[in-house]
Amino acid sequence: MEEDLTEIDPNQKTYKQYLFFWSGQLFSLFGSNVISFVIMWWLTVITGNEIIVTLAYFFNFVPLVVLTPIAGVLADKFSRKKIILVADSLQAFFTFLLVIAFFFNLETVWFAILINGIRGICQAFHQPTANAIIPSMVPQKKLTRINGINFLFTGVVQLTAQVAAGFLWEILGPNNISLMLMIDVLTFFIALIPLLIVTIPQPGEVGEKESFTFLKDFKEGIATLRFIPGLVIILFLAMLVNFLIKPLDTLLTLFIYEYHNGDALFYSLVGAVVQFGMIIGAIIVSIKEEWNNKIKWMFGGIIIAMGGFSFMGIAPPGAFIWIVSGGIIFALFIPIINTLFQTIMQSLVPKDKMGRVSSIANFLSMLISPLGIIISGPLGALLGIPILYFICGLIGIIITLLTWFFSGIRHINYEKLLEEKNNKNSKEIEKGNSNRSES
Q1: pLDDT in the model for residue 4
Q2: Cβ atoms of 88 and 29 closer than 8 Å
Q3: 196-205 in b/e burial notation, b at 16+ Cβ within 10 A?
Q4: Spatial separation of the C-alpha atoms in residues 311 and 124, rounded to whole Å
């Protein structure tokens, strides 16, 4: 099907096409989560080393920080469908190389870390491009709901992938890792079908004669962010919070394996129950269409989430209920916080700048996260992972409260800003129609 390269207003037809495209992406997400589980758990069992596990996570994550601004600019300048196609195809190809390595017993720790890093590069181009597609295909009145539904189904898929990966590891064992890794390749081909069929709109002209200048487009994205009140403050807070929660992401396998004597199934069940908390949060944000005082919900959600993080850190050894209770508290508010922030951006940022603005926002929010990953291993070894978890959650609560009380963020009304924008657009449309009538 020929891809429409001009900007169009999202309607019911484009919305249905987006849902078809998105359904394929969910299959791909399932495969990616299974692979992430398998690689990280294999490294944990084989090495039992905080530094090795930290490096594996670091090399997978850093491309998301470094490359997303570039990917966002490309998503506004070139075919979004082709960017996703190339990124996903390369990810499947390199995963297949890892399959071959395990099948012929040629696997090494460093080769697995290398492939994990390359997968991160591919995801860095995929994610901002997929995010930029949403406001060009989904009507504005459905944005909050579709973002909530997205988090809901993402949570369901991640929960299912966690449980499936844990059971596969217990049933097949470490001698059949190549079979587990093949899941990602198979789900790639499932996701490929909707991607090839669906027409994905491209705001502006693709391949226009104006020269492609990354620096100019990057500066335009920064200027757009600064123009919207409060976004820089929110991103600064997100940067600090993301830095503080990196030990949770990086060291969770060791937290379960060493401090709570858990196996792969225990780890997968912890991850699954935590994902259940995220699903509940996503259901809430999907059902509730109108969210007044978005900024209060976001800041309150961050405080409660960081409290859940600290609660996990003080769990006694083997206390499954304690661990998952803290995890659920943490995860419950993540979809609400992210959905409200995405909705604010998608509603106030022009569609032709959405790719670069979204990727720059991701870049800024994750700017110091690589440092958080790198120091997670040494700090975990020095303090102990449980104590590190408790301290990071407590610091997150303090920083959020200080930002709320000592910046002007609490006085910003995003609902009023959106209403003013819509009124301005309506007047411009009426003026344009009036001029055409006179001519």
Answers
A1: 42
A2: no
A3: eebbbbbbee
A4: 32
**pLDDT digits 0-9 by tens, 2-33:** 344 444 567 788 889 999 999 999 999 999 99
The architecture of the domain spanning 12-200+227-422 is Up-down Bundle (1.20)
Per the CB < 8 A criterion, the answer to whether 204 and 352 are in contact is yes
Q: What is the mean pLDDT of residues 117-144?
A: 86
pLDDT at position 429: 44
Q: Can you tell me the mean pLDDT for 87-104?
A: 94
CB 243 within 8 A of CB 123: no
190: which DSSP letter?
Answer: H
**Phi-psi domain of 293 (left: phi exceeds 0; alpha: psi -120 through 50; beta: other):** left
Check residues 390 and 207 and name the one with the higher pLDDT: 390
Rounded to whole angstroms, how far apart are CA atoms 66 and 367?
Answer: 8
Distance CA(178)–CA(183), nearest Å, equals 9
Tell me how long the chain is: 439
- Which residue in this structure is represented by tokens 């992430």? 36
Cβ distance 120 to 8 under 8 Å? no
DSSP secondary structure string, 65-133? HHHHHHHHHHHHHS-HHHHHHHHHHHHHHHHHHHHHHHHTT---HHHHHHHHHHHHHHHHHHHHHHHHH
Task: Tell me the C-alpha distance between 190 and 229, whole Å.
Answer: 41
Model pLDDT for residues 323-336, shown as the tens digit of each residue:
999 999 998 998 88
